[in-house]
Each structure stands twice: as C-alpha cells, then as structure tokens.
Amino acid sequence: MAPWNDTEDRQLLLSVISVAQVNPNWEEVSKQMGKTKEAVRQRFAKLKKEAGEITANGAATDDGSAAPPATATPTPRKRKSKAKSKKATSDDDDDDEGTPLTKKTKKSQKVIKAEDEDEEEAEA
C-alpha cells in the first residue's frame, strides 16, 4: 500500500469531521492557531470545499496535491425580444388603451402641455 500524502491526510480529517457532523468552536481554534476566528472558519471552509472537489473529480497530481479546480463559464442571460413583449401586450384586452404604461415625470408633462398649446395655436 502506498504511503499517505498530504492531500489524503487532509481528506481523511475532513471526512471524519463531516461524517461526525462536528461543529468546531472557532473561538478556541483561533486561539490555538493564533489567527482570527473568521480567518480560521473561512480557511476550513475552503479546505473542505477543495477536498470535496478532489473526491468528486478524483483528480490529484502525482505529488498528491490537488489539481487546480475547473472554472465554469457563466452562461449569459437571454434578453426578451421587443417583438415578444409587444405581442404579449397586444394580446391583452384593449380596455386600457390610452392609459400610460409608465408614470410621467413633471418634465415630460410640461413638454406634452407645451405641444398641446402649440397645436391649439396652429388650429386657431
């Protein structure tokens, strides 16, 4: 049987901790390590995640260290086309025809009022 390497040691400890469902006292651990409570907790979470990736991938280098994790490429979100949104609104009853879809600002109300006055003057 091959000798244990650092990755296997770490994986063993993390497996025992997860199976036993241990909830460490981070305050005590931080005192023993000489680090902050949050730093210890975050490092443990990172090690646990890395060990889970190694187990899931079964990937490790020849020296026993973890292979670099594969990064997933995020998929861009698809935008709704304007044609679809117009179609959806045209299918509705036209009871609200003439009703503005958005709230008008004071500036836009002034512009509309000025345009109405210009039209009235042109008609007179």
UniProtKB/TrEMBL annotation:
Bias-annotated ranges (Basic residues): 76-87
InterPro entries hit by this protein: Homeodomain-like_sf, Myb_DNA-bind_8, SANT/Myb
Organism: Aureobasidium melanogenum (strain CBS 110374)
Superkingdom of the source species: Eukaryota
Pfam families linked to this entry: Myb_DNA-bind_8
Domain named Myb-like: residues: 1-48
Region (Disordered): 51-124
Compositional bias annotation for Low complexity: 58-75
Stated name of the protein: Myb-like domain-containing protein
SUPFAM superfamilies in the record: Homeodomain-like
Positions with biased composition (Acidic residues): 115-124
